[in-house]
Amino acid sequence: MFADRAKVFIRSGKGGDGHVSFRRELYVPAGGPDGGDGGDGGDVVFVVDEGLNTLNDFRHVRKYCAEDGKEGGKKRQHGASGADVICKVPPGTVIKDFETGKVIMDMSNKTEPVVILKGGHGGNGNMHYATSTMQAPKYAQPGQPAQELYVTLELKVIADVGLVGFPNVGKSTFLSRVTNAKPKIANYHFTTLNPNLGVVDLGDGAGFVIADIPGIIEGASEGVGLGLQFLRHIERTKVLLHIVDGASVEGRDPINDIYAILEELKKYNIEISERPMVIAANKMDAMNDMEKETVIDMLKEEFEPQGMKIFPISAVSGEGVKELLWYVNDLVQNAPQEVIEFEQEYVPTFDFSNDPFTVEVDPENDHTFIVEGPKIEKMLGYTNLESEKGFDFFQRFLKDNGIIDELKAKGIEEGDVVRMYYLEFDYYE
Questions:
Q1: In whole angstroms, what is the distance from residue 232 CA to residue 220 CA?
Q2: Tell me: the pLDDT tens digits for 321-330?
Q3: CA–CA separation, 214 vs 303, rounded Å?
Q4: Is the pLDDT of residue 130 over 80?
């Protein structure tokens, strides 16, 4: 089955934790901290694979997780970085945030790999936390957490020309005549279920790629039937070729059909409805000359003043098809040649505090609270608490970093003791 949409879970690797260790050598009684840094976590990388044309692989594998970084070691040994996870997608794939539906990245014009989620940085080992006042730090920095996200992958077919029209107007027959595509052809009253892609070769290097967009029905822009799934494939096309049943074989009014399709396009995306459009009045072989002339005059009078040229054709006999194709080719050549790309609307951001602290009640004394962690060690190392300015900074630090709030949450009361390594003070509001 043609797969043009998939929901997947992606996760980058967690950074490896920094290591706590101390240099221990003969005749070196106080060698100092030598804990190494953790390795970085792997990235989630998307790559365009020209050999793919569906998202089928993502129907079978729903989770893509990069490898975590390894912990640092003693003797300043750096932990190994985690392996990236590579997601291969077909050209035309758009990556969206599942929750908001906003575009994270359009892979259409990307020739290089794109990192969607960055792996967490490895944490610093305790060798980074030695100061003149704290020469034997017993804390290391943990690695940054992994980043994770549910994303929607949408395949928007890259074609020059989009073939639109109501079901059963002859689009599949037309496509099979003018290209090497082999769509299923039958008298279906619902719709062809898959977008069919074909190449029109006019010789001497002239030609274009055409996509048969499955039959659009009224209400498609609001999700009726499979409308929304198919309308997304029109978004990249440069020219729209609208095929109508000129002979009204099933009693349809071609003018009403054209306006109905135009309305659906406007509702879905106003920009699409403003692209060059050509109208092909099909099934001319089912009418006599007088009926043909009447229908064509009626269509020309209605739509050519709006800039839409009318071509009477027969997809079965080939009547008028060549003239139509050359006209469409000229429109394609005069349209902007770059692939239409959707702008980024959403950048995944993750706020990780990488210098945590802990607040615990002393198990031997309910009125003593112990505050520790790399954040605290670093602050004590560069703050002169004996000066007035230094003590003011110390108080602001406790408040701004949420340490006071955490102490209150643990139940601290006035007169209780707060211990931070070599520092102890009484707590007062």
A1: 11
A2: 999 999 999 9
A3: 23
A4: no
Alpha-carbon dihedral of residues 105, 110, 112, 117, nearest 10 degrees?
Answer: 0
| Contact (Cβ atoms closer than 8 angstroms) between residue 311 and residue 279 | yes
Compute the average pLDDT of residues 408-416. Answer: 90
Neighbours of 17 (CB within 10 A): 24
Nearest to 22 by CA among 30, 11, 10, 14: 30
Task: Please answer whether residues 282 and 319 qualify as being in contact, where contact means their C-beta atoms are separated by less than 8 angstroms.
Answer: no
Length of the chain: 429
Write out the H or E segment, with its range, that includes residue 359.
strand 358-361
CB 126 within 8 A of CB 58: no
What's the rounded Cα separation, in Å, for the pair 210 and 214? Answer: 13
pTM exceeds 0.70, yes or no: no
CA 426 to chain CA centroid, Å, is 52
User: How far is 269 from 288, CA to CA, in rounded Å?
Assistant: 38
Residue 414, CB-side half-sphere exposure with 13 Å CA sphere? 2
Mean pLDDT of the chain: 82
Q: How far apart are alpha carbons 248 and 181 in whole angstroms?
A: 26
- Assigned token pair, 385: 């608490």
Q: Report the alpha-carbon distance of residue 145 to residue 11 in Å, rounded.
A: 10
* Phi, psi (deg, nearest 5) at residue 190: -95, -85
Q: Is the Cβ–Cβ distance between 148 and 10 less than 8 Å?
A: yes
Is residue 186 over pLDDT 80? no
On the 0-12 / 13-18 / 19+ scale of CB atoms within 10 A, 96 is buried
| SS3 at position 286 | helix
Query: Residue 28's pLDDT is what?
Result: 60
